[in-house]
Amino acid sequence: MNIFTAKIRFNNPEKFRIFLILAFLVILAFSIRYYFFSISDNIWGADPDERIRVTVNWMKGKGSNSIFPSDLWLPLHFYLIALSIKLFNSILFAPRILHLIIGVLTILPFYKLIRLTFDEKIAFISTFILAFFPIHVLCSIVTLSEGVFLFFFIYSVYYFFKYIKSGEVSALILAIVFIILSSMVRYEAWLFIIFMPLILAIEKKFKSAVLFLGAALIFPIFWLNIMPRASSTMLMFGVANTRYLFDIKDGFYWIKIMSKYLTPISLILAGLGVFYSFSERIKLYLFFIFLILFLFFTYGAVKIRWFKNLEFSLSFSAFLIPFIVSGLYVMLKYFRKFETLIISLFLLIFVTNSINKSIEISPKYPSYLVSIANYLKYHMDEKTKVLLANYEFRFDLNHIPIIIGKFVENFKISGWGGDNLITKESILEYIINVRPKYIVYNKTDNEILNELDKKIGLSFKYIFDSGSYRLYELDYI
């Protein structure tokens, strides 16, 4: 190792210096994420564990499609989760470790992109900020798709800008490959299948624009043709009014989020950085990437009530960071004597805020779910069927199979995000036909249990209450 590093130092000291910078940033990002990984669980709403559950059911042949795990969610994220489970034989930890690795590795393309579009100083401080950014930390420790999308998308933007600057065909091909991968993780990537060729046309690279557009459109066209549910959902998002009331405050929702997690002074500096970047076209393109993502999610927040998940802000916030640092350096032109002090104070404020916010949002499984999961874990085998009946529009019971870490395919879930068991009639039909051994049900509602007793005759053995739920063992007469 000493001989190897000595050769790098001797042959190319510049590359060795960049290697040391990136090594420091990667170790820093890993240390932060590993700490919060160790004190948190895989819960942030329903999505993290539900994505694992859908993946495991698909791997066991229980999915609706043998090729695609979901008829709505895009497939690549599920394939990566499946690969991690297969390699490490762990349902609970392997997918989280995968996201930890991807989150840490995002440091590399982010630094390269900002170094390409701005300079080395701005790239270093911007990447330092990303290493501490609470929302990216969150997406690196739970199985959300936003962190995976950001990794692929930043690489696409990096190679795209590299092609614009250098004309290297290999950079264009890699930009296309990574935008295709991004478009197989999250739908917002599809916006750039149009926007990026438009930039190429502005740059008078018309053949490249046609190639980019044609290649990148293949997957979205294929997906919309074979997945009618995805088509109808996108149509609903585009034209249907799913809100009861329009609230102008929703238009400022993401600005409040960025102010909270990036600090208010950062937004002021970002405005300054954007203003002074308009003279350079490549920086302007980077700003428009931020703006497209920001407007897309602002439209969603105004239109759809559930479109305010914190993790949605990751992508546009990440692309705002270099403009924050650029604005800081614009301000420093008037305070040259205090440059080191001002940068240190700014980073101290940001890091302190980030650590506090990361602690606030570090997710833990509620104790009432852990109690139910522990009982079922030691009282069921590979043949035991369990019905988890979520209460009204809650989805907390979805986490129980993942907490247990085995027999995931033996659970049937009703309610929001469940297995098409929405009505009480469908729940009754499932119990009559499948005859689960256990049912977790809302302890204040006995309507289904009374109806079952009338129809087929059941003995309900009460086990215990946990939170708002009650665990029963069913004995079929």
Describe it.
The protein is an alpha/beta fold and 477 residues long. It has 2 domains: 2-361, no CATH class; 367-476. The chain has helices spanning 2-11, 13-38, 47-59, 76-88, 94-105, 107-117, 120-132, 134-141, 146-166, 169-183, 191-202, 206-226, 228-239, 253-262, 264-275, 281-303, 314-332, 339-361, 367-377, 400-404, 424-434, 447-455, and strands at 386-389, 411-414, 438-442, 458-466, 469-476. The protein has a 5-stranded mixed sheet. The mean pLDDT is 89.
Largest sheet composition: 5 strands, mixed
Helical proportion, percent range: 55-70%
Give the overall silhouette: elongated
Q: What is the CA-CA span between the terminal residues?
A: 71 Å
How large is the count of helical segments? 22
Layout of helices and strands, plus pairs?
Elements: H1 2-11, H2 13-38, H3 47-59, H4 76-88, H5 94-105, H6 107-117, H7 120-132, H8 134-141, H9 146-166, H10 169-183, H11 191-202, H12 206-226, H13 228-239, H14 253-262, H15 264-275, H16 281-303, H17 314-332, H18 339-361, H19 367-377, E1 386-389, H20 400-404, E2 411-414, H21 424-434, E3 438-442, H22 447-455, E4 458-466, E5 469-476
Parallel strand pairs: 1-2, 1-3
Antiparallel strand pairs: 3-5, 4-5
Helix pairs in contact: 1-2, 2-5, 2-7, 2-8, 3-4, 4-5, 5-8, 6-7, 6-9, 7-17, 8-18, 9-10, 10-12, 11-12, 12-13, 14-15, 15-17, 16-17
Summarize the structure.
It is built from 22 helices and 5 strands. The protein has helices at residues 2-11, 13-38, 47-59, 76-88, 94-105, 107-117, 120-132, 134-141, 146-166, 169-183, 191-202, 206-226, 228-239, 253-262, 264-275, 281-303, 314-332, 339-361, 367-377, 400-404, 424-434, 447-455; strands spanning 386-389, 411-414, 438-442, 458-466, 469-476.
